[in-house]
Amino acid sequence: MATKAAVAKKPSSTTLNQFGIAPYVEKKGEEYMCGDQKVHFKKILEAWKRQLMEEVDRTVDHMKDEAANFPDPVDRASQEEEFSLELRTRDRERKLLKKIESTIAQIDTEDSDYGYCESCGVEIGIRRLEARPTASLCIDCKTLAEIKEKQYSS
User: Fold this and answer.
1) Is the pLDDT of residue 12 over 70?
2) CA gyration radius for the chain?
3) How far apart are CA 94 and CA 68, in angstroms?
4) Out of 57-66, 79-88, 97-106, least confident range
5) 43: buried, middle or exposed (CB in 10 Å: 19+, 13-18, 0-12)?
6) Residue 6's pLDDT band (boundaries 50, 70, 90)?
7) Helices (H), the chain
8) What's residue 47's pLDDT?
9) Beta carbons of 137 and 115 less than 8 angstroms apart
10) Are 96 and 89 within 8 A, CB to CB?
11) Residue 66 CB contacts under 8 Å (≥ 6 apart), including other chains
12) Cβ within 8 Å of residue 36, ≥6 positions away
């Protein structure tokens, strides 16, 4: 039977685990968004970008292999709907790729403010950035933005 300590140390399923990257362990007295941390996040972003690009290649191959001119209109419509859904997903991923590339460029900038909220300037936080490396708002500002968005869309 596993002890509580062993259960507590078991990593959860996160973006990092998906890419085979260990969570960042902060060193005592380490400054926020130092070089090591930026390297860590750049590694995450590049792994994510690679995964998305592989997915694009798989989609193209799948659409080439599966493309058929079905005589049955229902089969043809079903295939067209499947391709349409795949293409919408790839379009969202294309936008995400642009954001990933922009974030990598921001990290590479000498006087980068990566890791700090664009709205209020506070630290976004290592764990939040590991969960969503393209985050540009702290959790409080993001929550406010979502509330405002809901109010305007209602």
Assistant:
1) no
2) 21
3) 26
4) 57-66
5) middle
6) very low
7) 4-9, 15-19, 35-66, 73-108, 126-131, 139-153
8) 95
9) no
10) no
11) 79
12) 24, 27, 30
Find the angle CA(135)-CA(136)-CA(138) to the nearest 5 degrees. 85
Determine the residue type at 137: L
Quick one: which of 130, 124, 113 has its CA closest to 47?
A: 130
Q: Tell me, what's the pLDDT at 139?
A: 95
At residue 14, does pLDDT exceed 70?
no
Distance CA 34, CA 36 (A): 6
Nearest to 135 by CA among 103, 106, 104: 103
Using alpha carbons, list the distances in angstroms from residue 147 to 125, 134, 150: 21, 20, 5
Closest of 21, 42, 26 to residue 112, by C-alpha? 42
Any idea which residue has 């985050």 for tokens? Answer: 135
